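Journal club prep, shared notes

We agreed each person brings one worked example of a sequence with its structure written out as tokens. Mine is Ferredoxin. I'm keeping it raw so we can talk through how to read the token line rather than staring at a rendered picture. Sequence first:
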Amino acid sequence: MSTDRRLFVCTNQKSGVGDDVAKALKKELKHQGLKKQEVKGQKVRTQVQTCDCLDLCRSCKKGPGAALIVYPEGTVYGNVRPTDAAELVAEHIGRGRVVKRLHLDQ
Ligand code: FES
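Then the structure, token by token:
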């Protein structure tokens, strides 16, 4: 059985940072070999998806970075910059650990 995981990245900022974050995440998933992985015996494929406003604007267009949500678990990150992509992919996708400094409590 396989599962899809998606990183929904808001691109609703005037600065265009969301598009840059999405590109950086895609690049890191490929670079770190984590587009497809096996987690607890299940094949998991991770994709990056851009989207419109996630209603997290205080941590998105009013800050230095973009907001994103990890589906299906619903982890929410805010003010994510392209330079955060490597850590986010390695920690969250690779090791299953939330990156606390970017995590938003909902
Ligand atoms: S503008 Fe990005 S969450 Fe609203």
